[in-house]
Specification:
Keywords: Carbohydrate metabolism, Metal-binding, Nucleotidyltransferase, Transferase, Zinc. This protein is of the alpha+beta class. It is built from five helices and 13 strands. The protein has two domains: 185 residues, HIT-like (HIT family, subunit A, 2-Layer Sandwich), CATH 3.30.428; 110 residues, HIT family, subunit A (2-Layer Sandwich).
């Protein structure tokens, strides 16, 4: 690499007060931020609107697992559907989970760990009836319908007191974990609070106890800002784990994603679309994941002042190798301020049908 290409900036090791994770920023391992491109775009540019072999296409509903609901309700020309996952990671038919501690037969005095039944819900949100469309092709209002489908389903799941946490996520592109090319996202309702979620919430609570402030509300650096809308900002986080990682954050303190209302859903749909299109233009339409980082369903009032939900977008531009696996500490070759500047400057023209 040409000496001084990244301005001779020395490496840094950063940790923010949300994830509480150390990240090494090592620009010597990278090209210029503007040179980052996905080597394997997520999807071909031309696709058919309908594929006979795709169970998610309009008219192939009989090939899917049972439907939970659709929008509009009972309409054969639906706009989106929420269905059970055909190959669920958890079983809604399993017994209500009870944690037990098994004892090995040969060593009565020792324990291997804890176990519970694999109870939970694993659902799929089919975001459009047309095979050729992706989430970023939809209008902000259409994306809002997808977001509100998530909140509707979460409200269904709250009634089951065994469910502690609902993870909404989207895998776009085969290398990001998508097994189907038809645009869809997933929801998993868990009888536990996952360890990464618990660690994030503990870090946010510790910051609040020390400062009296929400660590997510404190993200106000212009150097990290990509875009601001009436109700949301998009940023590259201060200690971004991955190159060109993006967070979309509500401007008003809000602990639970499922409290999102219809007006804010349209605004969120617009900024999410903008971020996906900026990312596609700048990074050659990379495979990506997004996840909604929210709060456990049963959080009480004492947990709400420090807990703030956000939507995290991760373009798949690098892989976790031995160092990351061994330490849990990631190496990011792009400083967040550089990534934010590049994304701010990507010019996205409006598409026909945008509202």
């Amino acid at each position: 690499m040409e000496k001084g290409k990244m301005g001779g900036r020395p490496p840094e090791i950063r940790k923010d007060w949300v994830t509480n994770r150390w990240v090494i920023f090592s620009p010597a391992r990278a090209k210029r931020p503007s040179d980052f491109k996905s080597k394997s775009p997520a999807t071909p540019t031309q696709q058919q609107q309908y594929q006979q072999s795709c169970p998610f296409c309009l008219g192939n509903e009989h090939d899917c697992a049972p439907e939970i609901f659709r929008v509009p309700p009972d309409d054969p020309k639906w706009k989106l559907r929420v269905i059970q996952n055909m190959y669920p990671a958890l079983s809604r038919a399993a017994d209500v989970p009870v944690i037990t501690v098994p004892v090995p037969a040969q060593e009565e005095s020792s324990s291997l760990g804890q176990v519970m039944t694999g109870f939970g819900f694993h659902d799929v949100v089919i975001e459009t009836p047309l095979h050729s469309l992706h989430l970023s092709d939809l209008s902000p209002t259409q994306i809002a319908h997808v977001l509100l489908a998530y909140t509707t389903r979460i409200h269904h799941l709250i009634a089951n007191h065994s469910i502690k946490y609902v993870q909404v996520f989207k895998n776009h592109g085969a290398s990001a974990g998508a097994s189907m090319s038809h645009s869809h996202s997933q929801m998993m309702a868990l009888p536990i609070v996952p360890p990464a979620v618990a660690a994030r919430l503990d870090s946010m609570k510790d910051y609040f106890n020390r400062t009296g402030k929400c660590s997510v509300c404190e993200f106000n650096s212009n150097d990290l800002l990509i875009h601001a809308s009436p109700h949301f900002i998009s940023i590259v986080p201060y200690a971004a784990t991955f190159p060109f990682e993006i967070w979309i954050i509500p401007l008003t303190h809000s602990p639970h994603f499922h409290e999102l209302d219809a007006d804010k859903a349209v605004d969120l749909g617009g900024i999410l679309k903008l971020m996906l299109r900026k990312m596609a233009l700048q990074l050659n339409n990379p495979p990506f994941n997004f996840v909604i980082q929210t709060s456990p369903l049963q959080d009480g009032a004492s947990e709400l002042p420090h807990s703030h939900w956000f939507l995290q977008i991760i373009p798949q531009l690098s892989v976790a190798a031995g160092f990351e696996i061994g330490t849990g500490c990631y190496i990011n070759p792009v400083f967040p301020e550089d990534a934010a500047k590049v994304l701010r400057e990507v010019n996205v023209l409006p598409l026909e049908g945008d509202d």
